[in-house]
Please model this.
Amino acid sequence: MRLRSPRVQPLPESEWDDEARSLLEGLLRAGGRVLNIFATLAHHPKLMKRWLVFGNHVLGKNTLDPRERELAILRIGWLCQAEYEWGQHAAISRGIGMSEEEIRRVNEGPDAPGWDAFDATLLRAVDELHADAMITDATWKALSERYDTQQLMDLVFTVGQYNLVSMALNTLGVQLDEGITGFPQ
Model:
């Protein structure tokens, strides 16, 4: 259940310390806006600095195909009921060409009609990591038919990263950014 107001308010730019400003000024220079997650993390710049390094690997430098990465992120966001995460990554998924039907179907899970065998296996791996903190031997074997060791590791760390992010978003009460929709109705 999403909190309807933040427990930790996004820190206004006027209150950023030098460390937070140095981390976030790139977003401002690029004409972008600072998303609520980053304005919230501005309360703890040392944490944000270290988390951004790992988050940047998972989101932009890992070995997974972007579509498969987004399927995994959407699924863990759904399982954790992290509406902020879902909304941000539904937008990213649309940007890489995923259909509205695929995005919506993620919430139905690996057994929903319409997934190919590998997509179903990928979603099942996320479900297993969420439920048991481990991928079963059968699912690992099926993933291994397509993924090399680095991809297998990146999948586990991607799900783990967004499980952590979902916990933080839900607990801190980070609200949806303007223009971002939450869960499908």
